[in-house]
Amino acid sequence: MARIAGVNIPVHKHIVVGLTGIFGVGIQRARKICDAAAIDPETKVQNLKELDLEKIRVEVARHKIEGDLRREVALNIKRLIELGTYRGTRHRKGLPTRGQRTRTNARTRKGKRKGGKGGKISK
Q1: How far is CA 95 from CA 41, 70, 79, 84, 91, in A?
Q2: Is the pTM of this model over 0.85?
Q3: What is the C-alpha to C-alpha distance for residues 52 and 91, in angstroms, rounded to an integer?
Q4: pLDDT (tens digit, 9 = 90+) per residue, 50-67?
Q5: Residue 106 — left, alpha, or beta (φ > 0 → left; ψ -120 to 50 → alpha)?
Q6: Engineering a disulfide at 119: which of 22, 98, 100, 115 sits with its beta carbon 3.0 to 4.6 angstroms away?
Q7: Mean pLDDT for the chain?
Q8: CA torsion sign, 45 to 47 to 52 to 53?
Q9: Which CATH architecture has domain 2-63?
Q10: Which CATH superfamily is domain 67-110 in?
Q11: Contact 120/113 with Cβ under 8 angstroms?
Q12: Distance of alpha carbon 66 from alpha carbon 53, whole angstroms
């Protein structure tokens, strides 16, 4: 396996798809990295030479990824909570922050149903 930015990239995938395994690198950024490193995006990771991998590592290092990006996101959320903004209170309560309805749906954020008032009562 090729190791880029502390992440093992699967060798059987195309490099553009493999790079998306890095937190902060999506398909568009992966294509830009391949273009900047002058590498064909359709090349499989196993077919890349060590020199090509080094070019990719250099290009990836120019972006904020993995630990730094996770830390920045966490600090942004923490700042919203401390300021007491609407979005911050939604984060604190574990509810959707972007205006989605919560009367139904929102199970991913709210978690498993707790039952109680209005729920089905079995006899």
Answers
A1: 39, 20, 17, 15, 6
A2: no
A3: 42
A4: 999 999 999 999 999 998
A5: left
A6: 115
A7: 91
A8: positive
A9: Orthogonal Bundle (1.10)
A10: Ribosomal protein S13/S18, C-terminal domain (4.10.910.10)
A11: no
A12: 18
CA distance 65 to 121: 49
* Strand pairing report for 7-9 and 2-4: antiparallel
Residue spans of the domains in the chain: they are 2-63, 67-110
Q: What angle do CA 82, 85, 89 make, to 5 degrees?
A: 80
Q: With contact defined as beta carbons under 8 Å apart, do 113 and 119 qualify? A: yes
pLDDT digits (tens, 9 = 90+) for 55-109: 999 999 999 999 899 999 999 999 999 999 999 999 999 999 999 999 999 999 9
